[in-house]
């Protein structure tokens, strides 16, 4: 087996602003594993608010990646157990897990979603609108027509004005993401108007550690359903969220890959929590890894590849706002160097 990795810089089409930061580029790590004449690819994105970087991810993969994958790439459960026990970056786990799944699917001629025993059809994805001016917010919606739902980043000074402008411009469903940017008082005061505008849920309105605000908001009459993102990492986080929220956001970059995400989805179903499959800024490769589990999710927010101008991997389709998984082996994507 030969294992290689390299950083890749992705360029955003527009400056992407959320409550805590703005970016124009994002680095990811692409891992390739070659064995028995088959190559599998995986991608990992750093969770920067945990202190991860692509440099530390690459160092970790170079040091421990081969041992974590082991002697038999078909042993996906064994690989998953070793990754869970490894004290390495979560984004590195995502990349290794993705490469192993891609390799097995290609080796045996099956799409990963079929290996997992799933249907390849998922709910429509939302399209994310970052924080900007009212005018630019509306312009971004108009530049991305045809989506059934838009997810709007909030936590800036003009949240209501931006949402009102979107509602005037289109009748699509709206979701909002606070990225920990609100106080309880702000959420309480905004909620009646948000409901009038047809906002259907709010993602991570408060800081992850501010459980008091989550509890107080939960008691409000007419509140919005709350999904937890920054406060939900992996399987060990799920049960606690059931005590103060309505759903979780599962991201492979946070949990470490397809196998761990599938465990989180099963736990959420047992706890009557809804699940949104989400992403960091990733190319089609990272998005495709998460999308293999789309049939198990209630909501899909896998649109980062649509926000970037780069196409290092291709093959993931989009039809009327719904991701279309290739019916090709593995993740089904083509790397640009092989095109």
TrEMBL record:
InterPro entries: DgoD-like, Dipeptide_epimerase, Enolase-like_C_sf, Enolase-like_N, Enolase_C-like, Mandel_Rmase/mucon_lact_enz_CS, Mandelate_racemase_C, Mandelate_racemase_N_dom
Catalytic residues as annotated in Swiss-Prot or TrEMBL: 153 (proton acceptor), 251 (proton acceptor)
Pfam families linked: MR_MLE_C, MR_MLE_N
Protein name per Swiss-Prot or TrEMBL: Dipeptide epimerase
Gene that produces this protein: catB
Keyword field: Isomerase, Magnesium, Metal-binding
Broad class of enzyme this protein falls into: isomerase
Record text on cofactor binding: Binds 1 Mg(2+) ion per subunit.
Residue numbers binding Mg(2+): 177, 203, 229
